[in-house]
Amino acid sequence: MRMCNPPHPGEIIREFCVEALELTVTEAAKALGVKPKTLSALLNARSRVSPEMALRLSKVFGRTPEGWLRLQLQFDLGKAEKRVDVSGLKRLEAA
Questions:
Q1: Comparing C-alpha atoms, which of 57, 82, 83 is closest to residue 70?
Q2: Which run of H or E residues covers position 81?
Q3: Could you please report the per-residue DSSP string of 17-39?
């Protein structure tokens, strides 16, 4: 079951990884092997969790890469459900 308004994965990473471990963005970025600007963009919802970032997050903070990507997917679907009107569409059936 999908959440109706899931948070951006960056919010989760900030709260449960960076802040929980009392890391600075620079320290967390170094641990992840990325530039602070790259991590900052993710934490501030200006970028997405890519497969590459999911691998890094998994290694450094735990959880599976699929779990990190699932958070991104839930966020993306939540946004799409708000902006895409599918009410006039119908399922096609084989004859």
A1: 57
A2: helix 65-83
A3: IIITTT--HHHHHHHHTS-HHHH
Q: How many separate domains does the chain show? A: 1
36 within a domain of the structure (yes/no): yes
The whole-model pTM stands at 0.89
Residue indicated by tokens 């900030």: 14
Does any domain span residue 90? no
Distance from chain centroid for Cα 49: 5
Decide: residue 65, CB within 10 A, 0-12 exposed, 13-18 middle, 19+ buried. Answer: middle
Query: How far is residue 26 from each of residues 32, 58, 72, measured CA to CA in Å?
Result: 10, 18, 23
Q: What is the CATH number of the domain that holds 75?
A: 1.10.260.40
User: In the structure, what pLDDT confidence band is assigned to residue 74 with cuts at 50, 70 and 90?
Assistant: very high
Contact 45, 10 (CB under 8 A): yes
Is 91 part of any domain? no
User: pLDDT averaged over the chain?
Assistant: 96
